[in-house]
Write a structure and sequence with these properties.
- By secondary structure, the chain is an all-alpha fold.
- The protein has 9 helices and no strands.
- Helix 2 packs antiparallel against helix 4, helix 2 runs antiparallel to helix 6 and helix 5 packs antiparallel against helix 6.
- The longest helix has 32 residues.
- It is globular.
- The termini are far apart.
- The N terminus is likely disordered.
């Protein structure tokens, strides 16, 4: 019986297409990102009101949210960066929810979502560089936001390509087919490269634990 249930679950999972999964991805990714943005914003307010406040994720010299929060990079627009997440992630949640409700989303809206995700991915890669190579400290909640943003951009782009919202030159059709077939492999590799760069930079601290 258990084997039959497991086989049925596996087969149902395989039937999931990007079109079916995409709204759920937006809702889940947006929810995770919103929670992390809220935690970071809350801790930053506490830090601003009390310079001696120690965020819960200040674990060691490397995993140090306080160091990141007090940096100039954490206030790119003059306000705390989490405010951007508090505005952006509800858009993902709402977009996914209305798609699940059966609403037909216009092409311009999906392209706008893709553009927003593109801006987000440029921003998080800049934050990655600044955190690792300039601030020399990491915020675990920020890292979760990086992963969520990269994943959202990746699948929003693939979704728009699949629907024909993003037109590809004929010479890239073969590449697009390969990417669709190995979408998860590429995403995992992308994240592993980031993880490897982080580990390399902070090997001086974590190397003796491995």
């Amino acid at each position: 019986m258990i084997g039959k249930v497991s086989y049925t679950t596996c087969m149902n999972f395989k039937k999931w297409t990007l079109k079916k999964a995409f709204p759920w991805l937006l809702v889940i990714a947006g929810s995770i990102g919103l929670i992390c943005a809220f935690i970071i914003a809350f801790d930053e307010f506490k830090l601003l009101s009390n310079p001696h406040f120690q965020p819960s994720c200040d674990l060691n010299p490397v995993i140090s949210c306080g160091s990141v929060m007090q940096s100039k990079q954490a206030h790119l627009t003059g306000a705390p960066n989490p405010f951007l997440g508090l505005m952006a992630f509800p858009v993902l949640i709402t977009s996914g929810a209305i798609m699940l409700a059966g609403a037909k989303i216009k092409r311009w809206y999906l392209l706008g979502l893709n553009l927003g995700a593109l801006v987000g991915i440029v921003f998080v890669h800049w934050l990655f560089f600044e955190s690792v190579y300039r601030i020399h400290a990491l915020c675990p909640y920020c890292i979760v936001v990086w992963v969520v943003t990269i994943t959202t951009f990746w699948y929003t782009t693939l979704y728009n390509i699949q629907l024909g919202n993003l037109k590809l030159p004929a010479k890239l059709v073969g590449t697009a087919t390969f990417v669709r077939k190995h979408h998860l492999d590429i995403l995992v590799l992308w994240l592993l490269v980031i993880a490897a760069l982080i580990l390399k930079q902070f090997w001086y601290y974590y190397g003796h634990y491995l």
